[in-house]
Amino acid sequence: MYKVLITDPLSDLGIEKISQAEDIEVVRKTGLTHDELLLAIEDADALMVRSQTKVTADVIEKAKRLKVIARAGVGVDNIDIAAATQKGIIVVNAPDGNTISTAEHTFAMLISLARNIPQAYHSLLQGEWNRKAFVGTELNQKTLSIIGLGRIGSELAKRAKAFRMNVIAYDPYLSDDRAEKLGVKKADLEEAIAQGDFITVHTPLTKETKHLIDRNMFAKMKDGVRILNCARGGIIDEQALYDAIQEGKVSGAALDVFESEPPRDQPLLTLPQVIATPHLGASTVEAQENVAIDVSEEVLHILRGEPFKNAVNLPSVPAELQQKLQPYQELAEKLGKFVSQISKGALSQITITYAGEVAEFDVSPLSRTVLKGVLSHYLNNVNDVNAPHLAKKRGVQVVEQKTMSSQGFTQYIKVEVKTSTEIRSVAGTLLNGFGARITKINDYPVDVNTHGHLLFIEHQDLPGAIGRVGTLLGSQNINIATMQVGRQMIGGQAIMILQIDKPLPDKLIESIKEINEIQSLYEVDL
Ligand SMILES: NC(=O)C1=CN([C@@H]2O[C@H](COP(=O)(O)OP(=O)(O)OC[C@H]3O[C@@H](n4cnc5c(N)ncnc54)[C@H](O)[C@@H]3O)[C@@H](O)[C@H]2O)C=CC1
Ligand SMILES: O=C(O)CCC(=O)C(=O)O
């Protein structure tokens, strides 16, 4: 049974499926203090949040079983991604479900800002009838500068075009083709800032975008410009905005988000030129249902070990590629596990070589799985998320390469590890109808399946050596399921791989090692 902790308000309908799953216990605890969250997280397998819950490093540290943090929405700035990655916890979001709602909200703010609707309504409620004070401006033929033309920025552009606005956009990742398709003029930041009658930001909050719109930028804007932020507080420097409004440079601002939420004693909210909502961009029935459904499905997939798509701390793998790589996943992990269990010394390098059909794909997801297989021999709680990070942190060099030589197989993966004392390698393939097979250990060709408990023994090729091992195992009632032997030359270096039904007692291992011809023995669990 998996415990899924939900600490922010999520749509009931959106979480219906996960709540009814037989293998899931859903615990809803909203409005927790930080200390209460530290307690509640201890035995949770999954945490589902919106933006209120702050999933800080100490929360992640406290979690003993946490496998996934799911953000029902886009922005993950309330989650310490680095801490989650380090601990191998997958962070997923719901990038698409609230796009339309947030674009519509931004558009509502745009019109409200242009026509002073909130201020006029407020005045009317005070018993006033002041038509002169609320003369607005048309959107028609005005320039809207969009900073960040992603999902929401693009939807906003379409709506602005319908209102006959000139739309220009700055986004470092915007292609000419996409700008043309959207009917948007591509601009650099300075142009977008200088030409906008309305300027709206739709980027994530990152180190690069923090205070992207600062005092310097305000100075370059048109006099009387209007500013919108329905993305994240902090993209616009709030103090600089306040001053620009006071100086008359900016004639109005519409804010859905703040550097600190909820804002306390926020000077901007005392200005009549500022209209604001309490982070309502995604607050529609439809958006909340969409994002809750999306993250619930992701959490179910992750807990059940099934493929998932919206991980924030894993490079995204297109579904088509994921499907093509799926058959190789087991082989990749087992090769990593095998080679690490037959190596001694401090690990310094892992070289993964791909050949044949598999080499035609982007193999980086498979390399992460190989790393997981290798490192899980040395470390606890290694998974595809933290394996590259852990390798780097421990100074293990990872080399991924492709070669034309597939050793006669249609596909071929070889994992070689270099340690402080030796170099070891294990290679394998997928055999049509038989699945993953190990085909080479160091320089010895073998044919070993990738399941169960194995003994890997290095010995001298002398008569009686194999028999003596068999006799000892038999004397302790250990059954040998399959056996493979290989040698370099008669009387020379040789190996045995025995598939046995249960692990060996320590005493028996010692007895086998004492046989004269035996040089080394490794137990391998696959
Ligand atoms: N107010 C609300 O309730 C909501 C706010 N949001 C926020 O809206 C923002 C945008 O969300 P989406 O459109 O879904 O994200 P997205 O990832 O689709 O788009 C972000 C765009 O910003 C661009 N970008 C990144 N760095 C940039 C930079 N330095 N300068 C200019 N452009 C840059 C990216 O290339 C991308 O195209 C996010 O901050 C998100 O958290 C999202 C949903 C609801
Ligand atoms: O959960 C919410 O209402 C906030 C949505 C949001 O800001 C986001 O998705 O980035």
TrEMBL record:
UniProt record similarity statement: Belongs to the D-isomer specific 2-hydroxyacid dehydrogenase family.
Name of the protein described by the UniProt record: D-3-phosphoglycerate dehydrogenase
Molecular function in Gene Ontology: NAD binding; phosphoglycerate dehydrogenase activity
UniProt xrefs under Pfam families: 2-Hacid_dh (PF00389), 2-Hacid_dh_C (PF02826), ACT (PF01842), PGDH_inter (PF19304)
Cross-referenced PANTHER family: FORMATE DEHYDROGENASE 1, HYDROXYPYRUVATE REDUCTASE
Keyword Oxidoreductase: yes
Residue span(s) of domain ACT: 454-526
Superkingdom of origin organism: Bacteria
InterPro entries noted in UniProt: ACT-like_dom_sf (IPR045865), ACT_dom (IPR002912), ASB_dom_sf (IPR029009), D-isomer_2_OHA_DH_cat_dom (IPR006139), D-isomer_DH_CS (IPR029753), D-isomer_DH_NAD-bd (IPR006140), NAD(P)-bd_dom_sf (IPR036291), PGDH (IPR006236)
Pathway assignment: Amino-acid biosynthesis; L-serine biosynthesis; L-serine from 3-phospho-D-glycerate: step 1/3
Enzyme Commission (EC) number: 1.1.1.95
Gene3D superfamilies given in the database record: 3.30.70.260, D-3-phosphoglycerate dehydrogenase, domain 3, NAD(P)-binding Rossmann-like Domain
Organism: Thermoactinomyces mirandus
GO terms, biological process: L-serine biosynthetic process
UniProt keyword list: Amino-acid biosynthesis, NAD, Oxidoreductase, Serine biosynthesis
Catalyzed reactions: (R)-2-hydroxyglutarate + NAD(+) = 2-oxoglutarate + NADH + H(+); (2R)-3-phosphoglycerate + NAD(+) = 3-phosphooxypyruvate + NADH + H(+)
Annotated function: Catalyzes the reversible oxidation of 3-phospho-D-glycerate to 3-phosphonooxypyruvate, the first step of the phosphorylated L-serine biosynthesis pathway. Also catalyzes the reversible oxidation of 2-hydroxyglutarate to 2-oxoglutarate.
